[in-house]
Design a protein that fits this description.
The longest helix is centred in the middle third of the chain and has 22 residues, at about 115-140. By secondary structure, this protein is mostly helical. Helix 2 (about 15-30) runs antiparallel to helix 4. The N and C termini lie far apart (about 35 Å). It has a 3-stranded mixed β-sheet. The protein has helices at about 10, 15-30, 50-70, 85-100, 115-140, 145-160, 180-190, and strands at about 70, 105-110, 115. About 40% of the residues are buried.
Length: about 200
């Protein structure tokens, strides 16, 4: 929440924000190939193939939320070992239509915990945008998270990533240069070095 108690504007447009993050990630995925799977990523514990597995799990959960209003805590199989890039790309494309087809959903149950659907879609948007950036960097692509999308996600990031999440889920906030673009500030807040290059 903002200091005046109001919800960030981005939180009110969760599905649209999620769609924009998916579109950015899809643009990156179109330039990732099978030969990239062993490349290092900004997530030090994962190579690109492992990062794709994680993104595949996230997409499956978001599709499940759209389809059923529930996310099980047991992850589904993330992707085909034969072609993980195509499998994750297909899940991302499916997600674009899945939430657009939902007429009205106020709540999504995660395990047994009910959450506002906007919280789920905004969390998904944040995760897919930053992992889209991870995939871009790992595959040698220069694209930043689009500035307007990054600005909105920067407004939400402190709601979803708090001090208790560091250093277990996210590294410490990284330094950014003066005049840094919104995409650079976003990934730095989420523990990535904006100048990372594999």
């Amino acid at each position: 929440m903002r200091p005046d108690g109001s919800a960030p504007t981005a939180l009110l447009g969760g599905v649209a924000l999620l769609e924009r993050s998916v579109t950015y990630a899809l643009g990156v995925l179109h330039r990732v190939g099978p030969g990239d799977l062993r490349r290092p990523t900004p997530c030090a514990q994962w190579d690109l193939g492992q990062l794709l597995a994680h993104v595949g799990d996230s997409l499956a959960a978001l599709n499940e939320a759209a389809d059923t209003g529930h996310i099980a805590l047991k992850p589904q199989a993330a992707y085909s070992l034969a072609d993980p890039v195509t499998a994750v790309r297909d899940r991302a494309r499916r997600l674009l239509g899945a939430w657009a087809a939902v007429r009205r959903r106020e709540l999504v149950t995660v395990g047994s915990l009910p959450l506002a659907a906007a919280v789920v879609t905004c969390t998904g948007a944040l995760e897919l945008a930053v992992h889209g950036w991870d995939l871009a960097r790992a595959s040698g692509q220069p694209e930043q998270v689009p500035a307007a999308l990054a600005e909105e996600l920067l407004e939400l990031a402190p709601l979803f990533v708090v001090a208790e999440d560091r250093p277990a889920r996210f590294a410490t906030v990284q330094w950014v240069r003066e005049g840094a673009e919104p995409g650079e500030r976003l990934v730095a807040y989420l523990g990535r070095r904006p100048d990372w290059a594999g």
